[in-house]
Amino acid sequence: MVEDIASFTERLLRFDPGALVRLRDGRAWGRLPWEVLVSVEYECAGDVVVSAASGEKRDADWHWPLPPIGKARVVEVLPASQIVDLASAAARTLREASAGRRVGERAIRDALLDHPVITGTSDVDGTQFVVPQRIVQGIVRMRLNWPGGVDVLVAGPWTGLRTRIGEAWHRAPAGLTVRPLR
């Protein structure tokens, strides 16, 4: 299913008025403020970056790598209702934890986004995977959820969720190893 690009960019702009859209090899990509890349199918060739607001070309402003979706493996299939339930539970938790006060709400929100909500091991090849709440929020808040199955994808350090409408991806932060100089 090809998503209407106007709807996709409109939703991106709700989260970031300066949002960019990268059109590359049959997909439109956007970045959400909580470090999630979202994409939908879009008929395009080549590689160009435009402002979501004006359509003005902005190639030099895109600074994020894209997941290697051609190398992605499906490691699990979940019911779409589970994804919606996880997003709703996070919203309830945020409301209850902040209890109407603004102090600390951002710290709670950040902790919720990092919280692993789906973990498992693939029955096919034993790949372990962790899906943080931030990817779930990307699918639900961008309205990419679809009744039916949601694929959990893994491609190197990237984890994603894919529906018939679109995808949401997050790259796990690289671990830092510090060794003393001798």
Describe what this molecule looks like in 3D.
- This protein has 182 residues and is an alpha+beta fold.
- It has helices spanning 5-15, 80-98, 105-114, 133-141; strands at 20-24, 27-32, 36-41, 47-51, 73-79, 116-121, 128-132, 149-155, 158-162, 166-171.
- The chain folds into 2 domains: 5-69, no CATH class; 70-171, no CATH class.
- The protein has 4 helices and 10 strands.
- Strand 6 and strand 7 (128-132) form a beta hairpin.
- The longest helix has 19 residues, at 80-98.
- The radius of gyration is 17 Å and the shape is globular.
Structure characteristics:
182 residues, two-stranded antiparallel sheet, 27% helix, globular
Quick overview of this protein structure:
With 182 residues, the chain is of the alpha+beta class.
Total helical elements:
4
Q: Spans of 5+ residues with little confidence (pLDDT < 50)? A: none
**Which strand order do you get reading across the main beta sheet?**
4-1-2-3-10-9-8-5
Radius of gyration, taken over Cα atoms and rounded to an integer in Å: 17 Å
Number of E-state strands = 10
What distance lies between the first and last C-alpha atoms, to the nearest angstrom?
58 Å
Total domain modules: 2
Helix content: 25-40%
* Overall SS class: alpha+beta
Which descriptor suits the 3D outline?
A: globular
Question: Element order, helices and strands?
Answer: HEEEEEHHEEHEEE
Percent strand: 25-35%
Mean pLDDT: 88
Largest sheet report: 8 strands, antiparallel
